[in-house]
Each structure stands twice: as C-alpha cells, then as structure tokens.
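Weekly modeling sync, notes
Attendees: AB, CL, MP (scribe)

Item 1: holo prediction request
CL wants a bound-state model with nicotinamide-adenine-dinucleotide before deciding which constructs to order. AB pointed out that an apo prediction alone won't tell us much about the pocket. Agreed to run with the ligand included and paste results into these notes for async review.

Input as submitted:
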Amino acid sequence: MTVTVVNPATEETIATLASAGVEETDAAVARARAAFPAWRAVSPADRGRLLRRLATLVEEHHEELARIESTNVGKPIAGARAEVAMVADVFHFYAGAVDKRHGETIPVAGGVDMTFREPLGVVGLIVPWNFPLNISSWKLGPALACGNTVVLKPAELTPLSALRLAELALDAGLPEGVVNVVVGKGSVVGQRLVEHPDVAKIGFTGSTEVGRNVMQGAAGTIKRVTLELGGKSANVIFADADLERAAAAAPYAVFDNAGQDCCARSRILVEKSAYDRFAELLVEATRNVKVGDPADDSTEMGPLVSAGHRETVASFVDADTRTLFTGDTPDGNGYWYPCTLVEARNDDRVAREEVFGPVAALIPFDDDADAIRIANDTPYGLSGSIWTRDGARALRVARALDTGVLSINSNSSVRVSTPFGGFKQSGFGRELGLHALDGYSEVKNVFYSTEG
Ligand code: NAD
C-alpha cells in the first residue's frame, strides 16, 4: 500500500510513500509511550530550550519548508512563507510558555492545597490538508510544552512538510520517540489512534463529519478530544462601514488558500441599503485577485487540492445559481477553479454547507437583528467579521454572534498568542495562545496536611 503525493498545480506525482497500517501505528504509539517518562522529566528550562531550537531550525529552513508546502498543497509561495513564519513563532511562543504554567495554592482548613498541571501521556494529532504544517505546529507546540509525546498523522494528500518537521525536531535535539509521524489513511491510522488504549488524547482538525466519528471512537477509552471542525462564517457589512475597505478585503477572506480555509467568510451579509454599491466594489476587487502558478511570488490564489475536491466545489454552482461574477483560471493541467460570487438566500445549499472552495454567497439583510439572525442560522460557529463605524453596534453584534473567533473591521482570525476555536458544530477546545495548554494537560489537586 502506498500514498501518492501530487502537485495540484501540475498534476505531477512528487512522492510515493509507504502507507502505514495498524501495526505501524501501534509501533509509533509504543515509541511515544517509551519516550514519555524521560520527556516529562526534562527540566522546564531545557524543554523550552529544545522547542526554541526547533523554532530556530524552522526559521533556518524557512524557504525549503515553504516550497514543500506550496508544491504539495498548491498554495501560493508568498502565503506558504507566511505560514512557515507562523510555525516558527508558534514554537517560540510555547518554548517561552513551558516554565510559565504555574499551579495554585488554595486556602483550605488543616493544611495546604495545591494544584499541578500534569502531561497527559501520548497524544494523537490528526490534521487536515489545507494548512498541514501550520495546524501541526498549533498542536505540537502546546503538546510538547506540557511534556507529552506525540504521534502526528498528516492528511494523505499532504504529508511532506510534517515528515520534514519531524526530522528537524530530531536535529533540534528532541529525543527519539517524542515526535512520531505516521503517514496513512484516516480510516486506518487515524481510527487506530482514536481507539488506541495508550493514546490519552486526540487533537483533531478536520471536517465536522469525521470529527463526529472521532468523538464517538474516543468514548470507548474516555479519551480527551479537542475538535477543530468546519465553518460557514459570515462577513457582516453594515451600510455605515468603510465600504471600499471592506470590499477590498472581502475577496481575501474567501479566496485565500483557494477558499480551503475553515475560517473562510463564505457568506457575505450586506445591509440592503448598501448592497448594490458593495456588490459593485466586491466584483471589482475579486476581478483583481491574481490566480496562477503558486511558485510565482505575486500569485494570490492557486488551484484546489485535488480533482475530487474540485468536483465537490463545482457541485455548488449550477444553472439555477444566481452568479454575479466568475473569474479566470490558467489553461492546462492543475485543479483550477475560478473565484465565484453568487447571490443567495441563507437557506440555499451554497449558504448552508461548507464549500471549501473559492465560492462566496452574498446575502442581503435589513437591520442589526436580521444580520444576527442570519449569521447565527448555521450549525457552525467558527469565525466571522463585522464591518461598521459604530463601535457600540460592533460590540453588540460581536457579543450576539455564536462564534469562537471574530474580527471587527478586519478579516483576520488567527494569531499565535490568542485563542482559536469554534462554537456549536465547529468543535470545542482552543488552540493557540496560553489557552491551548489547557487541552494538553490535566489538573491534579494535592492536599498536604499540616496537622500532627
Ligand atoms: P477530513 O475530516 O476529511 O480529514 C482530516 C484528517 O482526519 C485527515 O488526516 C484524515 O486522514 C483524518 N481522518 C479521516 N477519517 C478518519 C477517521 N475515521 N478517524 C480518524 N481520522 C480520520 O478533513 P480534510 O478534508 O482533510 O480538511 C478539511 C476540513 O477540515 C474542513 O471541514 C475544514 O473546515 C476543516 N478544518 C478545520 C479547521 C479548524 O481549525 N476548525 C482548520 C482547518 C480545516
């Protein structure tokens, strides 16, 4: 059994790897288990130093890692470089966090009560293909900082950057067995990690459908899970917003990474009185998105990840769709799909399901209450944006939206030091920031009697 890795921009095979089965997965878990006692015993300062060294190695291999990611995912090289820079920052952040996780002392009668944050043991990390290295680092950073050892399963389509990162972890001096990468099918390797009795926790990022399976499978061993799942986020544009700025930014909130982004603001809600003007500005801005060769420094959008995924994306746009704009794509090989703007109602399929491609739905609304109602009318609750010059309204609406991450007059959701994660069927648990450490450690309470 092999995994064939393809460049989505050329359709050429760039690697063929052995596909692991249950036996190889069990062996990786055994290696991680054997490495755990020594890794948890590494002094906090030294663990921090090792993670810092890994961060520095990522910086030194910045261009190499960005090229691997760009070629394997089809993402523009400029975006891939920014992602690798974030990976280094993530390891720097958690290197600094290792010795700043303090316990508490709690006033009780008869003695001293104190809490400790203990590592969980072996954790299984399962990641998707859209941001392979980035999302791996969001899990590896806190997991390793807390003293866990890990088995990381990248998506079958995009395993290359995770394999290279594991080599860099060894070069940085992390002991053998602390970071293990297993390449194979989700239904085999992923499922085995979920059910394995020696895996204490699963950190999962992927679709809501598979997340549901993970949660069910984890029940057998009462495994801890963090689920970072799908989204159908709203970009809410009020008539009093800086419409030019909002329209110039909106395409990049959907078409970045060719729309293969859990935070994609794929529903653009626009107040009726500004709808026509905004739509005009948005079409102009979308026309300017530069689609083409991911290796070109100026490219803003590349192809989709696979032929199968392109079929799924295309199924959202048919003869009944009210299409406002369709962009251009390069000729020849590659899984290209054009930037597409459609007009929709919130109960249309394109507004309800995660397209995970460069298709955005414009939806008009009447007033604040209507905007909140439509934005919340989805099973998801990951991200979103609010554009208005009225500060009180911005905060009122922000508090009313059922979503884990929001931006006001901006479309950026992800920062190294701030918590990231979903409400509702977008999952639970938080990545990034100090919050992520909670998901990779367990609170232990110890009472020490001072009597007698
Ligand atoms: P996916 O759910 O198909 O796969 C994700 C991972 O799970 C892959 O590594 C896959 O091999 C593995 N997997 C598949 N079946 C499994 C099983 N039965 N048991 C255990 N693991 C299994 O998702 P995808 O298509 O790779 O990624 C796209 C999805 O990920 C989208 O829904 C997107 O919104 C979501 N996503 C969410 C976030 C977030 O942070 N919330 C970030 C990125 C992507």
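Recorded for review: The longest helix spans residues 77-97.
Action items: CL to compare against the apo run; MP to circulate these notes.
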